[in-house]
Amino acid sequence: MTSAAAVSATEVRVLEGPNLYSAQPAMKVILQVPGYLAAPEPALRALAARVGLKGARPGAPDSEQRQRFVMRFTTAVVRRVAAESGTARLSVRTRTGGSRQEIVVAFPWRRRGRGLALGEALAPVLTALLDPVEAVGDEAVAGVIAAVTAADPGDKPNVVTPKVPVASITGTNGKTTTTRLLAHIGMTAGLRTAWSSTDGVVAQGEMVEPGDYSGPAGARTVLSTPGVQLGILETARGGMLLKGMGVSANDVSVVTNVSADHLGLQGIDTIDQLAEVKAIVTLATRPDGWVVLNGDDPRVWAMRTRIKARPWAFSLDPDSPALRESLAAGGRGVTVLDGDIVVLHPGADPDHLAAILDVPVTLSGLSEHNIANALAATAAALGLGLPRQAVIEGLRTFAPDPAHNPGRMNVYTYPLADGGTVTVIVDLAHNEAGLEALLRVCDGLRVPGALVHLGLGTAGDRTDDLLQSLGELAGRRADTIAAVHKEHYLRGRTMEDLETQLRIGLSRVGVAEIDSHSTELDGLKALVARASDGDVVAVMCHSDRVLLDAWLTEEGATPDDAAAIRRKVVAARGEHEQEAAITALWEREDAEARIADAQALLSAHPGDARLLFELGGAFDAAGQEAEAVGYYEQALAAGLREPHRHRAEIQLASSRRALGDPAAALEILDRLVDQRPGSTAVIAFRALAAFDAGRAGAAVADLVDALLAHSGDADGEAYRAALHRYAAALR
C-alpha cells in the first residue's frame, strides 16, 4: 500500500476567519484514505504505537471503527509534525467526510506559508507511513518536519478586527430582510451605516458594490467604508465554509432559522450539519455582546449552549419556553403580546414598542416570517445599543417595497385593461419554507373566490428531493402554475432537468401539465395575462427582479404601501376597512338614523362598492325599496365582490318584487339558482317572486324540493320520491 493512491488530498483550503472548525483562521484538508481502510489491522496497531497511540484498536477493514481510528491517527501525525517544526499544542479537528474513505482535518494557522506547507504534506506523509519498511515512513516524517520548518512563513491572516459595532446575521430564510431592516433602524438612529448582503454592499442606502457580498469580501468592504459607524453583515453558509467569517468577532449575532437548503454542497448533507455551520456567527460574538436566536426553531435555540455572549430569544409565542429560559439565564426576549412587539426583561413588565399593524414589513400581520424577522431585527438593534425610539421609528417606516426591501415579498397592484386589479407578489422564495411563506401571503391577499397563479422556479443547486417537494407544495396550494427558469442560477443543471424534478412533485398531487417560460419576466407576463380581477400572481424571483419591477411600472402597476396592503388583507377576509363602522350602523334601532350613518360613510369613501351596498340595505330595511334599487345597482357596477355580491343581487331582486316587477326579480334569481344551487335564501326569494308572477304551483314545487334537499328525518326519506313527483306535477 505504498502507492500514491493510498492517501490523497482532494482539497487544501485556507480559511481566513472564524469557521466550522475553529474560532481562528484554519487550514482545512480533505483526505481520501483508502489505503488505511484496507490495511491489515496488526500493521496499523504497530503504526499507531510508533506515533504514540499505544493500545489503539483500528477495527476491521472498511469499518466505521477503522475510519475513526484513521482520524485519531492523522491528528497524532499532524501534532507531531507541528511540534517538531516549532508549533506546540496545536488544536487539530477531524471529521468524517462524505464517504467512508474520506476524512476532514483542520488546524489553526498564524502564517499562511507554514500552514499550507503542513496541509499539503499530509497526504504524502500518511502514504509513506504505510510503507512496511519503518525507515521509509520515518524518513518521510523527518522530511516533512524539515520542509515545514524551512517554509517561508508567509502572510498573517487577513481577517478584520472591527473598530465599530458589528452585527452578523445568518439563517436559511429571512437574513437579507433582517439585515436591511436592522440597517434601516441604524440609519434612523443617525448612524452612518453600511451593510452587505446577497445583493451587494450598501452604504447609507446607496449601492457601493453590486453582487453577492454575503461572505468575507462583503465584511471587509463594509468596514472599510469611509466614516462608517455601524456595520451589518449578512453572513451566508457558503462564505463561512469556503473562507470563514470576514471578521474576527461581532457585537451581536442573529440566527433567523435553519431549514433544508443547499444540502449536498461543501460536505453539508443534513440540516443538523447546516445548523452547525450557521452557529459559527454565535461563537464569534464577544462575551459582552448578544446572541439573538429563534426560540421557535429547536436547532437554532440549541445554539445557546455553546455561546459565551448573552442570549436574546425571539418567538412568535409569548409563552414559549425559550423566552423563559433566556430570561432565567440573564438574557432578554422579544415577542408579540396583545398585537404589539414587546421586549421582555427579567423581573420587569413587558415593554411595548409598536403594534404589528403599524410595522409595514409584516404585511398587516399576514406575513408570519416577516414578523419573526422584525422581532430579530428589534432584538439586534437594542443589543447594539440603538435608542428605543429609533427602533420604534425604524420598524414603522421600513416598507416591503422595491425601495426598502427589493425582491423580498414586494407587493404590487396591477390594473387590468378591462377594469379591476390583480395583486402581484415578487419574492425570492428559494426553498420550501420560503415558498410556503409566499403562498400563505397569497392566500391572505386574494379576495374570496379569486385564484392564485404561481411562477415556480429556483436555483439548480438544490437536491432532487427538494425540487420535487417544491413542486408538490405548489401543486397543493396554487390554482395555476407555470415554471419560470433562471438561466444564471442553473448551477450545473439544465432547465429540462430542473423542470423534470418540479413536475415529478406536481404529479404527486395531480397536476399533470404546466406552462414553461425561459425567463421570470416571460412567466410574469403570461400569468398576469390569464389573471382576473382580485386574483394574485406570485413569482419566485432570483435573477430578473429589476426587469420585473421595470415592466410592472411600465404597465401602470404601483407598489402597495402599508395602507393598501391592510385594505387587501381586510378584503380577503370578506371584510371592509370600515367593518366596525358598518357593524355599528346595523346596531342602530332607528331606520332614519341608520340611513344617515350609511350616507356619511359613503360620503367619506365615495364610490366604495361595499358602502353603496350597505346604504341600499339601509333604505331597503326602512321600506324605501325604490331608493335601495339604485344603490344596489351602483354597488354591482362598481365591482362589489363576494360574499356581498350575490347578496346584493338577492336584495335587488327582492326590492324589484316589492315594487311590483316580479319578472325582473325572477330574471336575477333564476341566474342565481344556477350559480348557487344550495342557497335556501335564493330558492325562497324565487318562490315568492314566482307566486307574485302567477306561478304559485312552481313556487310551492321549488319550496318542496328545497325542503327535501335539507331534510334528513325518517318521514322525509319515506316520502321523498312521492313528494318530488307531486312537486313536478305542480310545475
Structural description of this entry:
The protein has 29 helices and 22 strands. With 731 residues, it is α/β, with parallel strands linked by helices. The chain has an eleven-stranded mixed beta sheet, sandwiched between helices. It has a seven-stranded mixed beta sheet with strand order 20-19-18-21-17-16-22, sandwiched between helices.
Helical amount: 40-55%
Give the overall shape, derived from the CA principal axes.
Answer: elongated
Runs in which pLDDT lies below 50 for 5 or more consecutive residues are none
Helices and strands: which structural class? alpha/beta
Summarize the helices and strands and which ones pair or pack.
Blueprint: E1 8-15, E2 26-32, H1 34-38, H2 41-50, H3 64-84, E3 93-96, E4 102-108, H4 112-129, H5 134-150, E5 166-170, H6 175-188, E6 193-197, E7 200-203, E8 206-210, H7 216-223, E9 230-234, H8 237-242, E10 250-255, H9 271-278, H10 280-283, E11 285-294, H11 298-301, E12 310-314, H12 321-328, E13 332-337, E14 340-344, E15 351-355, H13 368-383, H14 388-397, E16 410-415, E17 421-427, H15 432-445, E18 452-456, H16 464-477, E19 480-484, H17 495-508, E20 515-517, H18 520-530, E21 536-540, H19 545-554, E22 558-559, H20 562-572, H21 579-586, H22 591-604, H23 609-621, H24 625-637, H25 645-658, H26 662-675, H27 680-692, H28 696-709, H29 714-730
Parallel strand pairs: 5-9, 5-10, 6-9, 10-11, 11-12, 12-13, 17-21, 18-19, 18-21, 19-20
Antiparallel strand pairs: 1-2, 2-4, 3-4, 6-7, 7-8, 13-14, 14-15, 16-17, 16-22
